[in-house]
Design brief:
This protein is an alpha+beta fold. Helix content is 27%, strand content 35%. Strand 9 and strand 10 form a beta hairpin.
Length: 189
């Protein structure tokens, strides 16, 4: 109702401060899509304040990521997600694996001078004997994604895999291969 009342005056800028905060997930997704459609249809500039990374990435043409009142990164959603500027951004956007320089070097064979971030979906689980040797420590069902906890070369990693079938689940303790998409690594301060 508050959104409808504010639109009656035909504003040029719309400020939405955590408007979906107290809603359940299904209604939240629906209203998020409706707000985006209204904003685009009316060609409104909207400032949408949120602590929810999915909302920020879904609703935004441009994301301004702030930490303690300071702008950390100001970019398109796509660039913010794929080209992080620091470890705070990596911790806020997605579920990046943040690796210390030694861990990154052990996994990639390359030398790093800063920490490295890699997205969970930027790694592929393979049959044992292919890629890097790894072990499944556990998994969480996130709906359409299964997030595995994997140990590879004494480094703990989160790896996301599409949930295609219960028959495809890797068992805890199972040995697997791991392939990293090195082009997706981001060095973060």
């Amino acid at each position: 109702m508050a959104l409808a009342r504010s639109l009656v005056t035909r504003p040029r800028i719309l400020l939405l401060d955590e408007p979906l905060l107290a809603l359940d997930a299904r209604i939240r997704r629906y209203l998020r899509d409706q707000i985006r459609l209204i904003q685009q249809e009316l060609k409104l500039t909207a400032i949408f304040v949120t602590h929810d990374q999915e909302e920020a990435l879904t609703l935004s043409d441009r994301v301004v990521l702030m930490n303690q009142g300071r702008i950390v990164q100001n970019d398109s959603a796509e660039m913010l997600y794929t080209r992080l500027v620091d470890a705070f951004a990596a911790g806020f956007i997605g579920s990046y694996n943040i690796l210390e320089t030694g861990q990154a070097s052990v996994l990639t064979g390359r030398h790093y001078t800063t920490r490295v971030a890699i997205r969970p979906e930027s790694m592929t689980l393979l049959p044992a004997g292919q890629g890097l040797d790894a072990v499944i420590l556990g998994h969480s069902l996130l709906g359409n994604v299964i997030r595995y906890r994997v140990e590879c070369r004494q480094v703990l990693l989160l790896v996301d895999v599409l949930n295609r079938s219960v028959a495809d689940l890797y068992p805890n303790g199972g040995r697997i291969g791991l392939q990293l998409e090195l082009s997706t690594l981001c060095e973060v301060a």
